[in-house]
Design a protein that fits this description.
- With about 130 residues, this protein is mostly helical.
- The chain has a domain of about 60 residues.
- About 65% of the residues lie in helices and about 0% in strands.
- The chain is built from five helices and no strands.
- α1 packs antiparallel against α2.
- The protein starts with 9 loop residues before the first helix and ends with a helix.
Length: about 130
């Protein structure tokens, strides 16, 4: 009997929806603080701070548009999957069964190391 571990992922979908709402809430609070509470009134009342508030608001809104565009593009893009007729190559299937040996490491990095250094390098002794 094959175990279907993906049936346990349905709770993760609900958690993912909660995370989307959480991120949008953080963006909304940031928008309120920057635009409504801080720089909106400065722009509305005029004075010397009006020009600075205008520059900050233009910069903030341009960054906000880019943030939301990137976020929704990431959230709404299908992650894809493994093609139906894909098979791992023979080397990948036997990769765990073949232990590293000294000569293969030396040949891979192109060095002819002395035996003591090779043992330290390959054996994992630091």
């Amino acid at each position: 009997m094959a175990w279907n571990v993906f049936k346990f992922c349905t709770a993760l979908r609900a958690l993912g929806s909660i995370m989307i709402v959480l991120v949008l809430g953080i963006i909304g609070v940031t928008y309120y603080v920057i635009v409504v509470a801080k720089y909106g009134p400065a722009l509305f009342y005029g004075g010397l701070d009006s020009f600075d508030a205008f520059l900050v608001l233009v910069l903030f809104h341009s960054l906000l548009v880019m943030l939301l565009w990137s976020y929704f593009t990431t959230v709404l893009t299908d992650p894809g999957g493994v093609p139906p007729n894909w098979r791992p190559s023979i080397d990948e299937e036997s990769g765990d069964a073949d232990p590293l040996n000294t000569k293969s490491v030396e040949n891979a990095i192109g060095l002819n190391l002395p035996a003591a250094i090779t043992v330290l390098f390959v054996g994992g002794v630091y």
